[in-house]
Design brief:
CATH superfamily of the largest domain: Histidine kinase-like ATPase, C-terminal domain
CATH topology of the largest domain: Heat Shock Protein 90
GO molecular function: ATP binding; phosphorelay sensor kinase activity
Catalytic activity: ATP + protein L-histidine = ADP + protein N-phospho-L-histidine
Protein name: histidine kinase
EC number: 2.7.13.3
Organism: Sulfurimonas marina
Number of strands: 7
Structural class: alpha+beta
Number of helices: 6
Length: 239
């Protein structure tokens, strides 16, 4: 009972920490709208729409974070096999339709064999999309004409490996050891969106029983996710 209570408390602490920034941003936007309504005879509808859009984005962010964290405590019976190739197709669509990514090429390299991964597809989707968006943000500081991000998968009999690689300059040595810490972010307040690297690491290690690491050089960064391969014949059925 004490173990379950401690786990619940730790989960609530993670949620509270991850929600702090979006809640602060929502509060700031609400105050801004209130000030505009109080001081201006005619409120600028464009400003109101911009504020409400930012509020909606933060609410969506909170929803994604909550769903991912709650999945950490889900039983095996709720997990499912899902297609890695179909997941990559979905990620490609989501990444390329974002306006900020129009100048960036996403190259995907999949195995011909459609590998099945075990867990929550939505969580792996968020982890990979977060890595891709981080790479896209890194290209903002670059004047390169060729801005390409590579998403690749490979498998052997035991593991599946997923790599996200860019040529946008490496992670500075001073912060490289902190990228998976709960308090760490390179984003300006209000720009961060999604689950972040801290929760990404929790999901990969806890839900998928895998690992996530990275290699970085002055030329670029490569994140490497390793997942144990679990097809139908190797799954343990939960009763």
């Amino acid at each position: 009972m004490n173990d379950k209570r401690s786990q619940t408390i730790e989960t609530l602490k993670v949620i509270a920490h991850q929600w702090r920034q979006p809640l602060n941003l929502i509060s700031m936007e609400a105050i801004n709208l209130n000030v505009q309504a109080s001081l201006e005879e005619q409120v600028d509808s464009k400003k109101v729409l911009e504020s409400t859009k930012r509020i909606e984005e933060q609410v969506q962010r909170m929803s994604i974070i909550l769903k991912s964290i709650l999945h950490l405590g889900s039983s095996e019976s709720h997990k499912r096999l899902f297609s890695l190739n179909k997941l990559f197709d979905s990620i490609y669509d989501d990444f390329t339709k974002a306006s900020k990514n129009k100048t960036i090429e996403l190259q995907i390299s999949c195995m011909e064999e459609d590998i099945q991964v075990y867990g929550f597809s939505s969580d792996l989707h968020e982890v990979l999309l977060n890595l891709l968006n981080n790479a896209a943000d890194a290209y903002k500081e670059q004047s390169k004409d060729n801005k390409t991000i590579f998403l690749e998968s490979s498998c052997n009999d035991k593991n599946c490996t997923i790599k996200v690689r860019d040529n946008a300059g490496g992670i500075p040595e001073a912060i490289a050891d902190m990228v998976f810490e709960q308090n760490f972010s390179t984003k300006i307040t209000g720009e961060g969106f999604g689950i972040g690297l801290y929760i990404a690491k929790l999901l990969i290690e806890t839900e998928f029983e895998g690992s996530i690491n990275f290699n970085t050089t002055p030329e670029g960064t490569e994140f490497i996710i390793t997942l144990p391969r679990k097809d139908i014949c190797t799954l343990k059925f939960v009763h």
